[in-house]
Design a protein that fits this description.
The protein is of the alpha/beta class. It folds into two domains: about 5-195, NAD(P)-binding Rossmann-like Domain (Rossmann fold); about 290-415, NAD(P)-binding Rossmann-like Domain (Rossmann fold). Helix content is about 40%, strand content about 15%. The chain contains 16 helices and 14 strands. The chain has helices at about 15-25, 35-45, 55-60, 95-105, 150-155, 170-180, 190-220, 225-235, 255-270, 275-285, 290-300, 325-330, 360-365, 380, 385-390, 405-410, and strands at about 5-10, 30, 65-70, 80, 115-120, 135-140, 160-165, 185-190, 305-310, 335-340, 355, 370-375, 395-400, 415. The strands form two sheets. An eight-stranded mixed sheet has the order 3-2-1-4-5-6-7-8, with helices on both faces. A six-stranded parallel sheet has the order 11-10-9-12-13-14. Helix 1 links the parallel strand 1 and strand 2 (about 30). Helix 1 (about 15-25) crosses helix 3 (about 55-60) and helix 7 crosses helix 9 (about 255-270). The chain is globular and about 70 Å long.
């Protein structure tokens, strides 16, 4: 069968990246969003999200990737993805009302033989309730990672597909889209696929929680977590791709959302979720590592200290600040002066009464009594510790992710603190 025209409804992070990857595989795509201003920006190649290589891919796709604010343009598509990001509140609860409204608008204009695919994450039970012939309705698990979304979209490990009849062949048009990527396709019932996404995130949370728990012990007893990680990566039961880097808790929104979903299901059905509650408690404890350290080591020493902050995004290579550990660390520091630099996020996002922006990492560090490196942006790894030490008033550098070279930082006279290692190492 010839490759179908593929539609994507919702030009937020998920929809834009996914549509770009499909277009790059040779399929023409229709990228719909009701926001006319956003569509105008996309047509001018002004992308609303930050992802490595995304701008170049959209440019290379050219006219094969069209952007439209006219819903009727989706009627010409053989496959239509619902790909709008699902917002979550502060408790991790998803708001699917926008997704439901979008589906309701699309169903009347969907081609008679076209397939509808729910790509955005929805709670188990959502897809089966959609009033469409089951043979034309699918749920596809998305596993994009902020900062690595293009890589994940263009080189998928496998596709997890929810359908009405797992043993039946996929609709030819939908199968043609997935087959273009040459990876295994796992078919299962709708509810299993919806829960598979949550299960994946539970495993990731478990790995992160182990890393954070053991890294904290390392800091107290003189062990170094980075020395232990290679031994775990070589264990086939754990593996080289495991989430074993310690961090400032769980961030970004997606993992928190799934933890909240499991807690709600547990309460509704009377299942045990004690381990999930423990993961959440561990995450909150670890999130405050930098805050505790700056209070213990810097804030006691000066009446009105200046703190430099590198990074506001929740992780590197993304524009997102959802549940950012940096913002969580900054919030209780309202009484103190901050000098902030992030290569993408404006200082206004800090929502801090005494924060001022800087044009470079070194400028932010100038005159600072302590430096907090709260997002591991690649540009920060290029900073010269000697140059940082020269402009700082104090010596403390709180660097959870070991962005700066530790030996170079200590040689420059900095008190360089990283997760998973004692202060003296």
């Amino acid at each position: 069968m010839s490759l179908p025209v593929v539609g994507f409804a919702g030009m937020t992070h998920l929809g834009l990246v996914s549509a770009t990857a499909v277009t790059a595989r040779g399929m023409p795509t229709v990228c719909y969003d009701p926001d006319q201003a956003l569509v105008a920006r996309l047509r001018n190649r002004e992308l609303p999200v930050v992802e490595p290589d995304l701008d170049d891919m959209v440019a290379a796709n050219g006219d094969r990737q069209t952007f439209t604010a006219d819903l009727a343009d989706l009627s010409a598509c053989g496959v239509v993805y619902i790909a709008k990001d699902v917002p979550t509140d502060d408790t991790g609860k998803s708001d699917t009302s926008g997704i439901a409204a979008l589906i309701e608008q699309i169903l009347p204009i969907l081609g008679e033989k076209a397939v509808l695919v729910i790509l955005c994450q929805v709670p188990p039970g959502f897809t089966r309730k959609i009033p469409l012939e089951p043979s034309r309705l699918y749920y596809q698990v998305e596993t994009l990672i902020f900062g690595r979304a293009v890589e994940r979209a263009t080189q998928p490990e496998r596709y997890i597909v929810g359908c009405a009849a797992p043993d039946a062949p996929l609709h030819p048009a939908f199968e043609a889209v997935l087959a273009a990527f040459g990876c295994p396709i796992l078919s299962m019932r709708y509810e299993s696929a919806e829960l598979a996404k949550i299960s994946i995130n539970m495993c990731l949370v478990a790995s992160v929680s182990v890393a954070n728990t053991m890294a904290e012990i390392c800091e107290k007893i003189g062990a170094v977590w980075s020395e232990i990680v290679p031994a775990l990566k070589l264990d086939r039961r754990i593996g080289q791709y495991s989430y074993l880097s310690p961090g400032l808790g769980i961030a970004g929104g997606n993992l928190e959302r799934d933890l909240a979903t499991v807690l709600r299901f547990s309460e509704e059905y009377g299942t045990d979720s004690g381990v999930v509650s423990a993961w959440i408690a561990n995450s909150r404890h670890r999130r405050d590592w930098a805050l505790r350290l700056v209070h213990e080591s810097a804030l006691r020493e000066k009446v009105d200290p200046v703190l430099a902050v590198w990074g506001l995004a929740y992780k590197e290579n993304t524009h997102s600040t959802k549940n950012s550990p940096s913002l969580a660390t900054i919030a209780p520091l309202a009484p103190y002066r901050l000098r902030v630099f992030d290569p993408v996020i404006p200082v206004a996002a800090a929502n801090h009464p005494r924060a001022e922006g800087a044009t470079s990492p070194v400028e932010a560090a100038s005159g600072a009594d302590a430096l907090l490196i709260l997002t591991p942006w690649p540009v920060f790894r290029q900073a010269d510790p000697a140059a940082v030490a020269k402009v700082m008033a104090g010596r403390l550098v709180i660097d959870p992710y070991a962005v700066l070279d530790h030996q170079a930082a200590t040689t420059a006279g900095l008190d360089h603190r990283v997760l998973g290692a004692p202060a003296a190492v």
